[in-house]
Amino acid sequence: MANSYFRFKQFTVHQAKSAMKVCTDACVFGAYVSLKEKACSNEETNILDIGTGSGLLSLMIAQRVNGNIEAVEIDDSAFEQANENFEISPWQKRLTAIHADITQLSILKKYDIIVSNPPFFQKSLKSDDLKKNLAKHTTTLPYTALASIACSHLAEKGKFYILLPFEEFIAFEKIALENKLKLFEKVNIRQHTLSNYFRTIGVFTNVATPEAVTEHSISIKDKNDAYTESFIELLKDYYLYL
User: Structure pTM?
Assistant: First the structure.
């Protein structure tokens, strides 16, 4: 059974009420976004987190990125959990949890940064747990809807970051392009240096980009099952024992 909380260096994520628990690939995603954006943000930067769950991604970004973060969550319990985690964090004044279906939410502003670790496992069998179904499947948030929302609410020259399973990212990239979102950077993640990639971070924008997409890779552990230097460098500001 997963722990009811996960303690980081500067904040704690309580997760008993959220179906999706803190996991390594989500932490890599949060750390990567914050690393890329920490020098580009200011107090007027607007950030949108779509499907925040326990609030993990918003909290990781808030630690290193200036600006105001609005985190949308459809599930009642997960929304309550995120709101509680925000209130006990050092950045509670810059974090706002919104209980809503993002596809039905009336949004009037544009965002400089939009992030999402969306539901996936489109073709896998669903469990009997409704909360896990909402969290892991695209039933309530199809990729077409997500791409359309990101395109509609991204400020000019803004960035849209997304974390998806490696193979599903290929399909999402095509959907994003149809919605005028252009991929300019991607990061493939694998568990070990010799294993296959299992997640991809994509960075999209709504302006013209060079033809070549910048591509990186991150291995979480090396052949000796120890954290790699690149993983340590990315997560050292967050994990307690790095």
Answer: 0.91
